[in-house]
Amino acid sequence: MSYLESYLQTIIERGNVQLAESIQKTVNDVVPAYLENFSFCDHEVGLLFGNVQSGKTGQMFGLVAAASDLGFPVFIILTTDNVLLQQQTIHRVRTDLQQFCICDEYDSETFNRNSLMKPTIIVLKKNVNTLRQWSNILASTGFMKGNALFIIDDEADAASLNTLVNKSRKSSINKYLDEIKSRAACSIYLQVTGTPQAILLQTMASGWHPYFTYYFRPGRGYLGGDFFFPQYEEPRSVVFTDTSENPLKAAVISHLMASSQILISGGKVCNFLIHPSVRQAVHTQFQNEVYRELQFCTENIDDPAFILALRQEFDRAQPEKYERKSFENVYANIKRLLINHQVNVLVMNGSSTVTSEQYESGSNIIIGGNTLGRGVTFPGLHTIFYTRTAKKPQADTMWQHSRMFGYDRDQGLMRVFIGQELYKLFSDINATNNSIISQVERGLKHIKMFYPEGLNPTRKNVLDHKKVSMISGGTNYYPFTPDNNTIEDLNQLLQRFDDTEDYYQVSLRLMIEILIHMTSESDFRIHAFVSIINSMLADNPTSQGILLVRRNRNVAKGTGAMLSSNDWQLGASVQDKVVLTVYQMTGEKGWNGRKLWVPNIKLPSDVVYYDVNDDD
Amino acid sequence: MRLLCSDILPLRIEDPQKAFIDYFNEAASSCDHLEIAVGYVSKASLKELGRIVEEYRIKKVCLTIGMYFLEGMPEGTYHTAVSLHEAWQNSDIDGEVRIVRAFSYHGKLYTFYKEGQPIAGIIGSQNLGAIKLEASNLRQYEVAAVTEVPEEIEELTGIISKLKRPNCSVPIQDVHIKLLREVNRELVDQEFVTRVSSDEVTAYQNQKTDISFEIPLKVPSNHDDPQMRGSNINVCYARGRKRVWWEVEIVVGKEIRDLPGYPEYQVPFMVVTDDGWKFQVWTCGQNNKNLYSKDDLKIMGRWIKGRLAAAGLIESINQVEADTLFEGLITEETLEKYGRKSLTLTKTALTTTIDNGTEIDVWLLSFLPHTNDDRELLL
C-alpha cells in the first residue's frame, strides 16, 4: 500500500470520509501539475492556501504522503515558534504517518541512523537556534547533497519572511530557512497559510514569491468568512454592539443558552471568546464585568423579565447539529450552570497560564488578546465578543484573530457581537480574500489585492518598499512617455466609439484589449493595471467599466495634466467603476507627428490596489 | 530477458517494468539458496541482507565482494561484513562473505534457487546497496536484466562458483584487507570545533615533546558485564541525571595524574586530534581526575564515539533510556575490534592564541587504531 493510500485509510477508519476525499482532490490537483514535473535541479516555492481553521494540516500530510510515493525522502514541517503547537504537530505526525521516520527537534541521531532509508519527517519550530542546529545537521550528514528536500512551512507568512528586506539584510529565521534549502541539491518549499497577503506581495527576486498557488476549498460544515461576513445578504449570526444597550449582557445570555443547549444535547463543550485590547488591565476589567453579569444572571434567575430574555434568545437560536431541547430543559440547565458556578472564566495573556484542557469541555468564557491569534483553536466556539480595532489594522493579522471559523460550530447557535466599523473591516477583508481565491482558481499568475484606505494588507516590514507600490482608486493615472504597439490596431479597435458620445459602458475585457496595445516606461505600469482589471474579472466575469474616447487632442507631451476639465469631471462622477479615457493626439507638441493613443485610468474609489513590480 | 530499473523521478518505471528492489525481495522471499557476487556493498545493504536471509529462512547464502582488496575497504563496511559473516558462521545458515583477491571484480550477479532448482538470475548495474536504498544512492539510476530461464541462471551461477574458488576469493575473516578510515562527521560544523588539514596535523606532530600520557578508556568487558556500565565514556547509561549519548566523562587514574607535566587543574589547552580536529580541553573535577572538552562535554564524546560509529562498531543513540539492548554501549570487545583502548595525550612545543588573546599550549590527542600502517584516511 502506498504512503498516500495508507494515510487516507487511517482517516477513513476514523470515520472522516469527507476529509479523505478532500485530501485526495488536493493531491490529484497538485501532484501531477507540480510534483511529478519537478525538475530535481531547482529550488521551487509553492503556496497551499486554505481558509483559517479549515483543515490545512490534513492536506499537508496528504501531500507529504503523496510526495513520499514519488521518492521525496525528507520533509521538514515548520511550525510557529510555540512549544505547544510544535508538540501538537509532531503528535499528529506520529499518529497519522506511522510508516515514516519521525524526528523531533532533538532527534538528530534518529535522522542520522535512518540515513533516509525510510522517508523522514522533521518537525521544527521556526526558532533561530532550532533552525541553525538542523542546518548544521543537514550539512554534517551530507544526506541532502544529491537529494530533494521538501519543506512545508505552516503559517508561512508569519516569521519566515525577511523582516529586514528594506534594510538590505536578512532576518535570522529567513536566513536559516534559506540556508536549510541550500543544503539540498533541490527543494520544494511549500508555504501554507490562510492569509497569503504578505507572501503574494513578495517579489520573485526575493525567492519567497510562490511559483504556483493552490487553493483548497473547505469541506462541508465549515463556517468561514462568507458565513460571518456575507457579501450579498444579512449576516445571520451578527449582533452589532453599537446599537445594543448592554451587549456584554446579551453575549453572556447567548453563551448561557448555547452552552445549555449543547451540553444537554450530548455536546462536550461550548466556548465564548472575548477579544478586547491587548492590554492586560483591560482583560481584568472584562473579567470583572463578566463576573458581574454572571452574578446578575444568578441573582435574577427566577425573575420573569430575565426568563423572558432567555426565552427570546432560545426562540432565536435554531441548532442544526444538536437536537433542539425544550425551553424548560434549557432553562433548568442554565440555572444549574449558574448556581453551581460551572461557567468558567479564563483570562489568556502573558501573565496567565491557561492550558487547552481548561477549555476542552464544559462552558467557558475566555478573555484574551494576542494569545488568541494564529494557530490556537477553540473547540465548540459559539459566541464571540469583539471590541478591538487596531489603529493601523492589518488584514492578515485581523483575519488570523477570526477564531470563530471552523467545522465544529453549529451555525444556528453562533453569535458574533461586533461594532459596525469593525464588521465593515472584516467584510472588506473577506471580499479581498474571495477575490484572491477567485484569481487563484482561475489560474491568474499575477494575483492582485486591494483594500480600503487605512487597512494594510500585512505588516510593512516584510514588503520591499522599492518594489511594492500602491495604486489608489479615485486617482487618475497616465503615462509620461506612452507609445503604441500598433496605432492601426488601436484605430481599428476604437473605430466604433464616437467622439461625440460622452462615454460608453464597456466590458473590462475590452479595456484590457486596449491597454495591451499600449506601452510605457515604469512610471505607468500597464501590466499592473491589466492585472488589476483581470482580478476584477476573476471576481465577476461580466464586470463593466466606463470608456471615454477622444480624438484630435493637442496636448503637449509630458504635461502635468492630461485630461480636459470636462473629461476630468465626467470621470470623477463615476466612483464605483474603472474609468478609462483614451486620447488620440494630433501628433504635434512633442509627439513627432505620430497620432498616438494615450490612456488615462482611474480605478474605483476609496480602495488601494497593491502592485509588486517584478520587471527587473 | 526483462529489465529491472530504478524507480526515480523523472524516470519512473512503467508497466510492465519492475523495480530491482521489488524483484529482488520477491525472489529472495521464495528461494532457499542465494548467490551474490558484486563489486561493492554498503553497511545498510549488508544488514538488510542479514535480515532477508533470516526472515525468509534462506538456508544457503554466499556474498562475494569484488572491488575492495586492491582499493581498500571502508572500515564501517568491513566491520559490518565481518559481523554478518560471523553471524552466519555461528548459526545453522550455510553462509559466508568472501573477498575477491585475484583481481578487481566489478560484475553484479545474483542467482536464486529453490529446492535445488534455479528460479531467477539478475545481471545488472546494481551493487548490493540497491537492496537498501539510503541517502547516498536514493537518486542513483540503475538498470539490470533478469532471466528466469534455467540455463541462463546456471550460466550466471557458473561464474559466481568460479569466483568462489580459493584461487579467486577467500572468506573475509581470512584476508588482511587495507581499511579506509571513514571521516567522523559528528564534529562537522559543531560549535567550538575547527577542522584541521592533514598537513597541519603533521606540522604539530613534528613538534612533539617528551611529555606524553597514555590514558586507558575504562569500559565493561562485554554487554553482560555490569561493571563500569554507567561510567566514563558510557556515562549516559548511569542512573541519575539524564545525559545525552554523546556526553562522556574521561576519568584519569591517579598514577597518570601524578606524572610530571600532566595538565594543570582547569588550565585550558588546545588539542589537535590525529584525525584532524581542533578544540579546547582542560582537566577538572575532584582531584583533577577528569579530562573534559572545555566548552561542551559532547565534543569529546563526538570525537571518541563518532570514531567508533564511523568504524561501524556502535550505533549512535537518540534516546539512551530506550536503548535497552545497549546498542550504544562501548565494551572491551568494541575497542578490541576497533584496535585501540586508550587515548594518547602528547604536548607539543607550540602554543596558540585564542579569541580572547590568551596564549595556550597545544597538545596532540590520538585515538586512531594502532595498526596505522595499512589504513588510510578516507577524505
TrEMBL record, chain A:
<feature type="domain" description="Putative endonuclease Z1">
    <location>
        <begin position="248"/>
        <end position="442"/>
    </location>
</feature>
<dbReference type="Pfam" id="PF10593">
    <property type="entry name" value="Z1"/>
</dbReference>
<dbReference type="InterPro" id="IPR027417">
    <property type="entry name" value="P-loop_NTPase"/>
</dbReference>
<dbReference type="InterPro" id="IPR018310">
    <property type="entry name" value="Put_endonuclease_Z1-dom"/>
</dbReference>
<protein>
    <submittedName>
        <fullName>Z1 domain-containing protein</fullName>
    </submittedName>
</protein>
Automatic annotation (TrEMBL), chain B:
<dbReference type="Pfam" id="PF20731">
    <property type="entry name" value="RE_NgoFVII_C"/>
</dbReference>
<feature type="domain" description="Restriction endonuclease type II NgoFVII N-terminal">
    <location>
        <begin position="23"/>
        <end position="175"/>
    </location>
</feature>
<feature type="domain" description="Restriction endonuclease type II NgoFVII C-terminal B3-like DNA-binding">
    <location>
        <begin position="204"/>
        <end position="348"/>
    </location>
</feature>
<dbReference type="Pfam" id="PF09565">
    <property type="entry name" value="RE_NgoFVII"/>
</dbReference>
<keyword id="KW-0540">Nuclease</keyword>
<protein>
    <submittedName>
        <fullName>Restriction endonuclease PLD domain-containing protein</fullName>
        <ecNumber>3.1.21.-</ecNumber>
    </submittedName>
</protein>
<dbReference type="GO" id="GO:0004519">
    <property type="term" value="F:endonuclease activity"/>
</dbReference>
<dbReference type="InterPro" id="IPR019065">
    <property type="entry name" value="RE_NgoFVII_N"/>
</dbReference>
<dbReference type="InterPro" id="IPR048923">
    <property type="entry name" value="RE_NgoFVII_C"/>
</dbReference>
<keyword id="KW-0255">Endonuclease</keyword>
<keyword id="KW-0378">Hydrolase</keyword>
<dbReference type="GO" id="GO:0016787">
    <property type="term" value="F:hydrolase activity"/>
</dbReference>
